[in-house]
């Protein structure tokens, strides 16, 4: 693996030195660099690349401007640092403020920059909606820049990538939600991931993070809910995953409060002390502050 990674870097270097247009296109369309990315647990960079892919699956968009392809991710202003992180990971692009709606936009344009984006995504997108978008978009790229890049479908083992890379963490940073509500007299912890029409993939995600708990509805809304007591294990896999692959956006703040409330609820002694109850109420309020209306 390490050797493949080095070889790949070498090829890229040779291509850069030679800067031959045709060779570059050929190397990219032959999907190199698996060596680097497949070795996902090694080193922070690979970790973050998978995270950026997961985030883009949720929040990215392969779009166009004046007929030319453009890649963008739009986030609420509180997550502007996430966009700068993405920029560092991709090594290209710019972050802009949309004055009108106070969102921030990470935008990549021009041939050389977009080639890097394409190289990272090609063969590694798992959501069928994104795969289709990407295919059409690379078609536009080829037309605009006279290239002949072939789009590869995802060929890895979905389950392995979901469980063993930060891809899912990126997706959760994009569209995961943590909440707590009252049900009768008990607090119920909830976690959701929503993505219309990706039911097969969401089943796999469901298997990885909740096994027998929770469920998936017809339009691919994965949810796990549970009233917590000391025996509740419903969230163990999700928590295990997020401990190995921590969230990078402000959602990690909501998650931290959610986890705190969960731990307080799991220890019944806390609920009998005034201090414990106050801590719990504060944590619940803090989680729900981030919960979408
Ligand atoms: C915010 O403004 C930008 C630029 O005008 C636009 O492209 C984008 O779609 C807007 N986003 C939302 C959520 O309205
Ligand atoms: C996910 O990975 C963890 C840690 O390696 C492992 O303990 C767990 O069994 C895996 N889960 C699945 C569903 O593969």
Main CATH class of the largest domain: Alpha Beta
Q: Would you tell me which CATH topology of the largest domain applies? A: Endonuclease I-creI
| Tally of separate helices | 13
Number of domains: 3
What is the H/E order? HHHHEEHEEHHHHEEHEEHHH
Structure report:
Keywords: Mitochondrion, Signal. This is Putative LAGLIDADG protein. One of its GO terms (molecular function) is endonuclease activity. Residues 1-22 form the signal peptide. This protein is of the alpha+beta class and 293 residues long. The protein folds into three domains: 1-33, no CATH class; 44-145, Homing endonucleases (Endonuclease I-creI, Roll); 176-290, Homing endonucleases (Endonuclease I-creI, Roll). It has helices at 2-18, 21-29, 34-38, 44-59, 80-90, 111-121, 128-145, 158-164, 167-175, 199-210, 236-244, 251-266, 274-289, and strands spanning 60-65, 68-76, 94-98, 103-108, 176-183, 186-194, 215-216, 221-227. The strands form two sheets. Strands 1-2-4-3 form a four-stranded antiparallel sheet. Strands 5-6-8-7 form a four-stranded antiparallel sheet. The longest helix has 18 residues, at 128-145. It is elongated. The site of one 2-acetamido-2-deoxy-beta-D-glucopyranose has 5 residues, from loops. One 2-acetamido-2-deoxy-beta-D-glucopyranose binds at residues 74, 98, 100-101, 103.
